[in-house]
Structure formats: C-alpha cells, structure tokens
Amino acid sequence: MPVNALYTDLSDYYDLMCADIDYRAQSHAVQRLQQLFGNGGRRHLDLACGTGPHVRHFLDAGFHSGGLDINQPMLDKAAIRCPEAHFAVQDMCAFSVAEPVDLITCFLYSLHYSATLERLTACIASVQRALQPGGLFCFNAVDRTRIDNRLFASHTVQIDAGHFTFSSGWHYSGAGERQALRLRIEKTTGDQTLTWHDEHPMVAVSFAELQALLEPHFEVHVLEHDYQRILPLSDGAGNALFVCVKR
User: Fold this and answer.
1) Where is the Methyltransferase domain (predicted)?
2) Residue 161 half-sphere exposure toward CB, CA atoms < 13 A
3) Residue 64: helix, strand or coil by DSSP?
4) Strand pairing partners for 129?
5) For the CA atoms of 50, 51, 55, 57, what is the dihedral angle to 10 degrees?
6) What angle do the packed helices 23-37 and 53-60 form, to 10 degrees?
7) Which of 23, 123, 128, 144 could form a disulfide with 217 if both were Cys (CB 3.0 to 4.6 A apart)?
8) 192-199 contacts: CB < 8 A, separation 24 or more?
9) Tens digit of pLDDT for each residue in 208-236?
10) What's the predicted TM-score (pTM) here?
11) With the C-alpha atoms ordered 35, 39, 42, 46, is the resulting torsion angle positive or negative?
C-alpha cells in the first residue's frame, strides 16, 4: 500500500493529532483481555503501530513488544520512544514474524486501512499464521451500515509551533467495499493559517461480514467499544472491540 504523503510530511505532528487518545487505558484493557481470553503469553506485536505509544505501555507492563508499520518516519520516532523494541517496515496485509507471538493488536481502527476485502482477508490470514495456538487478536472496527457521514470528531492542541485543530470523520456512500476517513488539519501561527485536507481509502465492512471472515480461524467475541468495562456489544452499536482467539 502506498505511504500517505500527509503523514510523511506531518509525522512530527502525528502524536498531536492523537493527543486525545488514552493509550494507557486502551493498552491496559487489552492486557486484561489477554489474561481472560488468551494464552497468557507476553509476546506482543502491534500492527500499524505508528510512533509506538501502545508498544511503550506494553513494554512497561512487562511484555516483549514490537510493532510494524508502512511508514518509516513513524517507525523512526517509535524507535526513539521504545529503544528496546523491534520495529519493522511491513504491510499488515502481508507480514511475517521470526517467531509466533501470543498477542496481536491493531488499534485506532487501523484494520480498515486494508482498503479492500481481499486485502482484509489477507491481513487476517497473516495474523492467524503469526499467532501461537490460543493466541489473541484484538482490534476495533466500525460497521459500515452504522456510519453517519455528518459526524466529525475534533480536538485542538496548543504548542510553541502553533495552534492545531484536528478533525476526522467516516464517510460511506451506502454501497460497495470502500469507505473513507476524512481528515482536516489546521495550523495557526500568528495571523497565518495553513490547512490540510486528506481522505484515506478504507475497507467498508459490516460486523456480520467481519465475523464471517474471522470465524474460520478464530473464536470471535464482539464487545462494546469500552476500554473501562468488558460488555457484550449492544444492539445498534456502530463501533466494536473484537477479541479473537486462534483456534
């Protein structure tokens, strides 16, 4: 998959763009899920790891953790944040590991970067091959049938380099296997404002379709998108946390 130019150019600002994310809560929740559903092992791989904030929390919790991403500038920053971890430039839809791991994560809806159902299927197969028996695959996803194109999430950050506003929202046409993640970034310094617009092609899939892809390889648990409590998915929910145990 080609590297997105926006993130290459703005890799220094990636952590600002994700400043409203509670990486600690997400990491600790998955560590608990590994204890409850997984094999208890502590070898961890984070897909689409970016600058490595989740990997840092897994390392601090005693995991042997590493990550992969397609963006080298991101991984350069991850290596600074987590010098004891191993990072690799790999496509999550066609990756391999030297030794099987116990836990694979894919946070921040990044599984949707597979972009097509064919590549999503290949990603799931790569995960299955990379896991130990009883290993766990955890990720979050959005149901294409529940997307509201009107909704955008925004947050602002003030640093010495300027005032930033980050906005993002899902968009789905209502048909087909492609949806988009639409992004807007504004940087204001003094009286000058720079604006970037971007649209990332993402795979569109319903939860039922996603379960059908996973179930030949995994025992699948679909939970509320809640990193504080473990609850079954409620009717009508459009976001979910998938917990998948290798068969």
Assistant:
1) 45-135
2) 10
3) strand
4) none
5) -130
6) 50
7) 128
8) 196/6, 196/10, 198/4, 198/6, 199/171
9) 999 999 999 999 999 999 999 999 999 99
10) 0.93
11) negative
